[in-house]
């Protein structure tokens, strides 16, 4: 079973040289720590920066320089600042190559829910609805099972939807899934995880074909 | 032409109850601190506030929630404010949550003189309820209207007495968009300079959009989420 950092590490293996990448809040943010050697990517944060650098050293935090998670960050040579309309303009226009998001639920048809639990938690969608409506290549990083032991890979989302038919790949603590017209296709299994556990932890349609390779992390 | 005001109290003198106000900033970054303090002091009520976030409990727009001055909040993300969540769940506060890019682009549309825009954000979600959907190519889009706000209040790094503005780093965010979108735009700046001192090639907001400007005082610039890298 993967830790949150290992989920991030596995997603980082999807990065390609020259990619412009938007990382959401939570596990997705950790992907930046595992960018493979020899690969250069430019990180976009939707509050208005391309070329987001690492967190600053203590004492060098700048309140005017944050990412969309409101964390203090730094600039890099070649960084550029822009306003929020341009930021979502480049997202809407399909210029961002890869988007990594967290989710509360994902459905077997690629719907995602991650912004509201009616009557309980109302945080808002932030930029998530814009991202899922426009990004061509979205990977969801999430825990497959909630604290009550229930699967979050579902036939249909029970929570309010963030976007329809938009998720193509999910990486969880248990495995890597492609979402196709057949449902959740298991592509890789995490070290130490059995196919039985995958089956128990997937409420939506699950497709397991041939030998499933073990994830390299 | 005199756009220069002495302070926030004077620049905001004619804001009254039940008005709609755009407020710049993202989280606590680039928010018009002096103007928010002045609004709290002034005690105007029944406001509709449009801003990406609602501050935190004791800073930013959160201060205006504590004093119950906000009737309606239009925002994209409000996760950092317990008082906001309480007022929302109890029904005391009317809240419209909209996608962040939609919020930005509805400001842009107002500033560019366009009545509405089409965006794919929110199609198939509760955000789409009651909205016109139109198909372009093989994709559906929602019709979203430009904002119509009485005032826009923004924060810039530097401004000149003609109202030209320059923002600093990600404190830019929604500020230049909202600056274009108010019927009356008020800018508070850290440094107020004479015309000619800002390089015309690097001005972000042309002064034509800015009606009033004042030099803010005592910026706290609170950091919401301080993250650091250990020194090697």
TrEMBL record, chain A:
Fetch the Pfam families from UniProt: CoA_trans
Q: Which InterPro entries match?
A: 3-oxoacid_CoA-transf_B, CoA_trans_fam_I, CoA_transf_AS, NagB/RpiA_transferase-like
Q: Could you tell me the keywords of this UniProt record?
A: Transferase
**Xref: PANTHER family:** KETOACID-COENZYME A TRANSFERASE, SUCCINYL-COA:3-KETOACID COENZYME A TRANSFERASE SUBUNIT B-RELATED
- Family per similarity comment: Belongs to the 3-oxoacid CoA-transferase subunit B family.
User: What NCBIfam families does this protein map onto?
Assistant: pcaJ_scoB_fam
Name listed for the protein in its UniProt record? 3-oxoacid CoA-transferase subunit B
TrEMBL record, chain B:
Record key words, sorted:
Transferase
GO molecular function ontology, one term from the record: transferase activity
Keyword Transferase applies: yes
Pfam families named in the record: CoA_trans
UniProt-listed PROSITE patterns: COA_TRANSF_1
Q: Which family does it belong to?
A: Belongs to the 3-oxoacid CoA-transferase subunit A family.
Q: NCBIfam families attached here?
A: pcaI_scoA_fam (TIGR02429)
Indicate what this protein is called per its UniProt record: CoA transferase subunit A
In the record, what lineage is assigned to the organism producing the protein? Bacteria, Pseudomonadati, Bacteroidota, Chitinophagia, Chitinophagales
């Amino acid at each position: 079973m993967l830790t949150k950092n290992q989920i991030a590490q596995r997603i980082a293996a999807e990065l390609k040289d020259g990619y412009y990448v938007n990382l959401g809040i939570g596990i997705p943010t950790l992907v930046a720590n595992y960018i493979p050697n020899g690969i250069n990517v430019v990180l976009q944060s939707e509050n208005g920066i391309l070329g987001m650098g690492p967190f600053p050293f203590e004492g060098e935090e700048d309140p005017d320089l944050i990412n969309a998670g409101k964390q203090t960050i730094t600039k890099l040579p070649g960084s550029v600042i822009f306003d929020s309309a341009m930021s979502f303009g480049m997202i809407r226009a399909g210029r961002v190559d890869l988007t990594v998001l967290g989710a509360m639920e994902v459905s077997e048809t690629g719907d995602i829910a991650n912004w509201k639990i009616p009557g309980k938690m109302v945080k808002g969608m932030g930029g998530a609805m814009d991202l899922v409506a426009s990004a061509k290549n979205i990977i969801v990083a999430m825990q497959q099972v909630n604290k009550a032991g229930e699967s979050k890979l579902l036939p249909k989302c029970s929570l309010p939807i963030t976007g329809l038919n938009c998720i193509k790949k999910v990486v969880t603590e248990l495995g890597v899934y492609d979402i196709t017209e057949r449902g959740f296709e298991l592509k890789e299994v995490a070290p130490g995880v059995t196919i039985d556990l995958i089956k128990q932890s997937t409420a939506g349609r699950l497709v397991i074909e041939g030998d499933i390779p073990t994830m390299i992390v | 032409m005199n756009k220069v005001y002495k302070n926030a109290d004077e620049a905001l003198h004619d804001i009254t109850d039940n008005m709609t106000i755009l407020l710049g900033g993202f989280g606590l970054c680039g928010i018009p601190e002096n103007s928010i303090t002045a609004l709290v002091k002034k005690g105007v009520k029944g406001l509709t506030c449009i801003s990406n976030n609602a501050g935190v409990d004791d800073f930013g727009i959160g201060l205006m929630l504590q004093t119950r001055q906000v009737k309606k909040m239009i925002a994209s993300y409000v996760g950092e404010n317990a008082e906001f969540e309480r007022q929302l769940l109890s029904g005391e506060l009317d809240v419209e949550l909209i996608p962040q890019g939609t919020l930005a682009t509805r400001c842009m549309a107002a500033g560019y003189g366009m009545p509405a825009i089409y965006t794919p954000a929110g199609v198939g979600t509760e955000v789409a309820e009651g909205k016109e959907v139109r198909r372009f190519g093989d994709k559906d889009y929602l019709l979203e209207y430009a904002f119509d706000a009485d005032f826009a209040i923004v924060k810039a790094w530097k401004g000149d007495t003609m109202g030209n503005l320059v923002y600093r780093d990600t404190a830019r965010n929604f500020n230049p968009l909202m600056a274009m979108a108010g019927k009356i735009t008020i800018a508070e700046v850290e440094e107020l300079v004479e015309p000619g001192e800002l390089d015309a090639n690097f001005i972000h907001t042309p002064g034509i959009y800015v009606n009033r400007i004042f030099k803010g005082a005592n910026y706290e610039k609170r950091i919401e989420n301080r993250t650091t890298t250990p020194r090697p």
